[in-house]
Amino acid sequence: TGPDIRAATEAGGTLVDQKTTFAATPRNVLDATHGYDCEAVEMAGELTDALRELALKAGEYSRFKRDPRFPRAIFELLYETWMARSLSREIADEVFSTRDGTGVTGVITLGAKCARADIGLIAVADEARGRGLAVGMIRRAAQSAESRGYREIQVVTQRDNQPACALYRRCGFTEETSTAVFHFWLGPAQS
């Protein structure tokens, strides 16, 4: 812990996240994920129950889920809205999903930030884990980024989300920045 973290904690802040940005060229991602093609198809439309659950799964390590003072209902609304606005193309350019006989098994959103392709949400249903779907969806996002002329692709996650950090490294990304995020609450805790 550095002096800034110590000062924020002494001022009453709670460290709720180490926001970590991973970046790569689309070509590096495609090289690292060779052989992980999957049937990730573009989708749009309404927020379904399955997509809602995947959106909430994408936020499992978020500061909004992990801060005990942040109301669960607000966390859920935040991620539901993020997915709905991605599907309507308000905040994402593309949304890709994977499916099996039971329905949607994974989802990834792709937009742009600071002249880079930007992965917003990514999640795989519990019952579909271990099939390489996350790697395949990242590969699909990198293919799209490359075809659209982006020279870089990025994804932001939480340092505590070690499975996600390992996934991004395996897919050719390198850690670029990490920022401590604090929540400061005014007034008594709400129940």
Brief overview:
The chain is of the alpha+beta class. 36% of the residues lie in helices and 29% in strands. Helix 2 runs antiparallel to helix 6 and helix 3 packs across helix 5.
Largest sheet: 7 strands, mixed
Approximate shape = globular
Terminal CA distance reads 31 Å
Q: What structural category arises from helix and sheet content?
A: alpha+beta
Low-confidence stretches: none
User: In which order are the strands of the major sheet placed?
Assistant: 2-3-4-5-6-1-7
Determine the mean pLDDT: 92
Please indicate the percent range of residues in DSSP E strands (runs of 2 or more). Answer: 25-35%
Q: State the order of secondary-structure elements, H for helix, E for strand.
A: HEHEHHHEEEHEHE
* Radius of gyration using CA atoms only: 17 Å
Q: What level of helicity do the residues show?
A: 25-40%
Please tally the helical runs, counting DSSP H or I stretches of 4 or more residues: 7
> What is the β-strand count?
7
Produce the secondary structure layout.
Blueprint: H1 3-10, E1 14-24, H2 26-32, E2 41-42, H3 49-58, H4 63-66, H5 72-87, E3 94-100, E4 103-113, E5 116-124, H6 133-147, E6 153-158, H7 162-170, E7 174-183
Parallel strand pairs: 5-6
Antiparallel strand pairs: 1-6, 1-7, 2-3, 3-4, 4-5
Helix pairs in contact: 2-6, 3-5
How would you explain this protein's 3D organization?
The protein is α+β, with helices and mostly antiparallel strands and 191 residues long. The protein has a seven-stranded mixed beta sheet, sandwiched between helices. The protein is globular.
